[in-house]
Amino acid sequence: TLPGGDGPNRSMLLQSGRYFDTVGWMSVKLDDNKTPRNLEFSRRYLDNNVPTYMFHTGKKHTSSFHTQQGEGITRHIQEMEKSEALTEVFGYLDSDYYLDREEWNEKAKNNHSIFDFYLDAVEATLVNNTMSPNWLFLSNWGILRGDIYKGPFTKSDFYAISPDDKSPFLYTTVTRDIADQIAKKVQDLEREEKSGSKKTPMPRPETLSAIQDESQSRFSLPQKSTASGRTYGWVTEDDCGGDGDDTPHVPIPQVDFDLPGRLPVYFWRKNYESQNLDDSASVHLIVTNRIGNGRVPKALKELGVVFEPNLLSYREDVRQDNLLEIYINKTFPSSGKDKA
Predict the structure, then answer these.
(1) Of 91, 178, 171, 158, residue with least CA distance to 128
(2) Cα–Cα distance between 152 and 339 in angstroms, integer?
(3) Three-class SS state of 43
(4) Share of the chain above pLDDT 70, in %
(5) What is the pTM (predicted TM-score) of this model?
(6) Helix spans in the chain (H)
(7) Is residue 175 within 8 Å of 307, Cβ to Cβ?
(8) DSSP letters of 92-115?
């Protein structure tokens, strides 16, 4: 708050787009601070990319905009990418896959849902049908945290959208009637655990608006035409009135995962739904490591299941850190290219 008699009327706070989507810029017209009155503030939310900065600094060529220090940092990042093989291409995707554009629905497959993409990878790469003639795979949405796009998919992109977790997937054997209840039970338990304390909303991964290069994790949204001629991007809402965005955008469609009354987000797939499988038939319940060491055992106990203290490792060769690599490499081959 600036010195003066009006307190909050002489203060200003900017909240720019999350994940560095936009950068807040503010100016204030100061007075002599002798008469109590409001100050005049101006603010703009700038898209975080080089063309925006070049426009506002009056630079027409990148050669006059880039600095030696900035170029040095760029070279350091590129060398690190090379040394860590971050530009290694796993495959070339033929579509975009989104985290939270639409609700995930078990009954209706969405060809652009990253949840369904991951479940396809599980079914094709993780599940051993000889070992598991009847199976159900279950995960919370924490295993995924961003969109992926058509084109080359690299190791860097994997790190951007999924934790680098070398843990194995876990499993246990249950009867069909238990398998059919487990997803709802785990969701209910998580909601009950969080209902007693003030919940801090989990930040939702959003598509970062950045300059394109050949890496998935740096792609902008596809430039889709709209009636207004605007492109998708961050749309700022603040209490100042008017439009503070330097470049107007159409808001990115997004499902709110944290609406009151909504069950926590989990996704799952089973291979026995269309079969005439008895309620007492055995089903392999396969889960991610995090929930397999937490809520799943608790849910099973509440459903009356007696089992070993810990779930078992499902496979040693297909883990949480290489599932997508194996699947994409096999299903979307890179046609001999090995660099993004």
Answers:
(1) 171
(2) 9
(3) strand
(4) 82
(5) 0.78
(6) 50-57, 62-65, 68-83, 114-121, 155-161, 176-195, 289-292, 295-302, 323-331
(7) no
(8) EESS-BBSSSS---SSS--TTBHH
